[in-house]
């Protein structure tokens, strides 16, 4: 396509706190994004169970596609591990349960009595997290909904099914379930059989770039789009799309996809399933073009988001820009917490839980909001450092630069602290890496661009604004702070 004739692609990007529909306009030499609709993602607690309001999300998707105008295709990415159950007639059997719900408490311990953790890791390469799909399904065994289910669809596949009437299971998201063998790219049938999990509930696997159907006539009517509009399978786990959107110029890079969660690691050609890797709680998730996302999950900006929500509810100042300026002036590394502490997983009362963690580890309790913010950002930088150092040690892949993509790329203080903690240069951006990865996989499927990940990344380097951060020469304060966070290397994933 000549530069004057861009094609438009709609990226449906659903995150833990909001959803967006973003239109990407692409030629062989340019790519630009336009967010046409944003809507909240507000979980709902009913009868003691925390659910996703998936019908509200779907309405937001339709509103966004209506605002998008004429597009060549649509691609969908969301968070991982959660799913919806369908009856034989295709109807939804209840709103999907949120991964932060407590229904899996005690389930991992029960599973380990049947399949020890080392065997689980050897079979799937997925790190332990109490909310993995495997544990959610084990928790649901014997429930009326699971007994009645004819089909299970992971969240992006559920949205795709409602748009097209065609069911499939996208590979990068399937690899987060702890039910897939990353070596073969197929289900771990023997493992599922031992645990009584029926893999026939999942529709056939499909890969980024595969067709996923076309918008149904009633969807075209509801959105005003013109037939035909194909839906293209993208890296439907948002981190898979985000890593595809990392503007690296060689394989010697680490990435941090930084948003509600920080997913930090390296890109490999094959999984690492050693006992040392399991003990370090690293996961092997599949990426675009047959890559492996070897990473550790860190609690991420969830800590900051929840503090802001608590302060807003209490009528306290909660302007993030002002708080970040004050945090930059606060004493560095005065107090740090373990960003992987499961005590931070649930919502509500985050400032109090951070204060209690400081008390428990005999560190000064933050005296005000700015010190709380500085504690969070220092702690995240330490967790980023630990993950990147461990990823290099365990994989044998040396890195020269750290790429921060996602919303965290806009947080200048966090980017600089990460560079200082890691002792490596940081390249920040693009902030919309997931949407870019989504759009560019669609554009490649449509023949607008060609090549592999290296070509996609070259296009991003040429077109996206990036910011560079050089590390401070002295890392001694960071080295001392590591001793105060003994759990900094034990983390969980979504």
From TrEMBL:
Keywords: ATP-binding, Disulfide bond, Kinase, Nucleotide-binding, Rhamnose metabolism, Transferase. It comes from the Bacteria. Residues 48-244 form the Carbohydrate kinase FGGY N-terminal domain. Its EC number is 2.7.1.-. Transmembrane segments: none annotated. Residues 254-446 form the Carbohydrate kinase FGGY C-terminal domain. One of its GO terms (molecular function) is transferase activity. InterPro entries: ATPase_NBD, FGGY_C, FGGY_N, Rhamnulokinase. SUPFAM superfamilies: Actin-like ATPase domain (SSF53067). The keyword NAD does not apply. Belongs to the FGGY kinase family. This is Rhamnulokinase family protein.
